[in-house]
Amino acid sequence: MKRKKLSLLLSGIGLWVIAAASFATETESVRKVIDQYAAAARSAEQRGSIAVPGKEGWLFFGPELRFVSSGRFWGEAAAKVSKATRPEFADPVPAIVDFHRQLKKMGIELLLVPVPPKSVVYPDFLSDLLTISRENPPMRIDTELQAFYQLLAKEGIGVLDLTAFFLANRFHREGALFCRQDTHWSGNGAVLAARKIREEIEGRPWLKAIRKTAYRSAWKSLTITGDLWRAMDEKGLPQENLSVRQVGSGSVEALKPIAPDLNSPVILVGDSHNLVFHAGDDMQSRDAGLPDQLALELGFPVDLAGVRGSGATPARVNLLRRAQKDANYWKKKKLVIWCFASREFTLSDGWKKVPLLP
Fold first, then answer.
1. β-strand pairing of 303-306 with 335-341
2. Which residues contact residue 142 at a Cβ distance below 8 angstroms, ignoring those fewer than 6 apart?
3. What b/e sequence results for 275-293 when a residue is b if at least 16 CB atoms lie within 10 Å of its CB, and e otherwise?
4. pTM of the complete model
């Protein structure tokens, strides 16, 4: 019996040693990739460019690589890595918690949906330390982001971390989840994000009570002029072709756009990830962005307060302005979906507390 117990003990120790060694190896691998990102970001800054060439025609955003490699970005560490113009607004936590508490006081739920870094979902298309694999997703290198989301969850804030879902669907049949030559997610990325948001919130009693409309959709191909493609000195790289899912009412052959609804119980707030493929012009297309995909998934239009600039403070200022114009604005709302690029945690001008009522 003693020998059996000793054998089990030694076996357990052996498994622990193997697991510890595996963890150490993975941690070291992550560190090496992160170091590469930091070097690539510095090189891009020295060249005066935002574009970092990757593999197979992929381009990455230099400031995003700086964010991913910056380490801890909240608390006392925030001012050291943030681009905020004033150090007292560098830490995103106080502003996010304040926003959540103001909404909760009005009976409104906050769902934070940070867009994962493209370089975290497709690291093997940038780092020469990783081999591109279409079968197995790469290891997660966003350890600080995961810790940050856990911190927010402890504050009672709903966070939808799309990273694992995106990693599992990197080679989706409708295409990649990020534009190869742009800083935004692709049309398909917006489709999958909307689907995941719907799964996250379905079952809410107020949602069940809303009358639904069966909207239609149709996929179409287009050529985009990506912001990273425009930033390249050499334009020898062909422009990117991708597919988007347009949404509307009526026939599939002649879809009628679904306009955002100021009276909707759901409002989508944030940066240009809420406008790309929705607003047209420099946003590449119309009627195929996140607001449109949410309307299709939920069965009703959402309200929209997206900005082309930072989704951190300016987007919330827009909400205050709406409340100033309409005293009953917040009485119509049940859910705020705050969606913006995760790099905003360090790249925004700052995270100020903004009142939601005049």
1. unpaired
2. 68, 116, 117, 120, 163
3. bbbbbeeebbbbbbbbbbb
4. 0.92
